[in-house]
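Q: Given only this backbone (283 positions), what sequence would you predict?
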């Protein structure tokens, strides 16, 4: 689970900005979850959090930074390709060609707390390290080291518990990505798989909108508890909607062949679900 996310010099973010799910003091007691870590320490975090602001204030870029960062971990670029994640702040010449920084604090395998960070620039990962807390002390799992005179290959140095083993990695790829294919390790491969299972939905992306509609429709149609909760939210928003009535349509019976292909291409499923809103009568 995500605890904290930091970025610097990425798109509209020139200075370092932090998005945190860690709970400090909050009056919303129902939104706080107490979690016992694998080292028996406790952490308090928020179940939900919201980002709000004016148009073009950077909300989408924060989500984009997180999703692109995770994609960079699980789908490494080919040798010598530019790093897509590198997209610095362009409106200040002093930082327009400087590294971009990313840091993620999360609860991962074995319920330990992890801190993973790296810097990128152009076609190169400049710094990278991963720490975790098997006890109250921060412990290094690996760090990255650039090879003097070699712009193509860097070295990943594992921590003391792994005898400071050294592995080679291309300059534009992450050390962590190595543990998803050619460097199997029980703990570090589990950390890699943690990111594979991340689900980030960017609602302004057309493809993700279609997948989101499909997923929500299935959940609402098949789960009465969720359906009632959605209805309660709509009522609380004063939409004058009193409930939901669902009808499942088979495209073969509703659309012609051309339209059916369009629907299948959009949602990649055999059925579509239509939600009919019932409004309260007002007198």
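A: Predicted residues:
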């Amino acid at each position: 689970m995500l605890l904290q996310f930091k970025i610097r010099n990425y798109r509209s973010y020139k200075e370092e900005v932090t998005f945190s799910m860690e709970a400090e003091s909050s009056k919303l007691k129902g939104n706080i979850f107490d979690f016992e870590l694998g080292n028996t320490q406790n952490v308090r975090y928020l179940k939900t959090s919201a980002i709000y602001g004016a148009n073009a204030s950077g909300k989408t870029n924060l989500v984009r930074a997180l999703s692109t960062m995770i994609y960079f971990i699980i789908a490494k670029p080919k040798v010598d390709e530019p790093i897509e994640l590198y997209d610095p702040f362009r409106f200040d010449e002093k930082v327009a060609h400087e590294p971009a920084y990313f840091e993620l604090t999360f609860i991962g395998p074995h319920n330990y707390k992890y801190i993973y960070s790296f810097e990128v620039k152009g076609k190169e990962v400049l710094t990278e390290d991963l720490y975790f807390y098997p006890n109250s002390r921060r412990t290094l799992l690996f760090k990255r080291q650039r090879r003097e005179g070699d712009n193509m290959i860097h070295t990943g140095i594992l921590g003391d518990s792994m005898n400071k083993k050294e592995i080679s990695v291309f300059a534009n790829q992450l050390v962590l990505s190595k543990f998803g294919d050619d460097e199997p390790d029980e703990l570090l491969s589990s950390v890699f798989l943690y990111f594979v299972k991340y689900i980030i939905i960017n609602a302004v992306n057309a493809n993700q909108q279609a997948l989101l509609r499909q997923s929500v429709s299935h959940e609402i149609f098949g789960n009465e508890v969720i359906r009632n909760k959605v209805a309660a939210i709509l009522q609380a928003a004063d939409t004058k909607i009193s409930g939901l009535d669902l009808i499942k349509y088979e495209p073969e019976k509703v659309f012609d062949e051309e339209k059916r292909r369009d629907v299948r291409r959009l949602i990649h499923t055999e059925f579509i679900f239509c939600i009919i809103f019932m409004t309260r009568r007002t007198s």
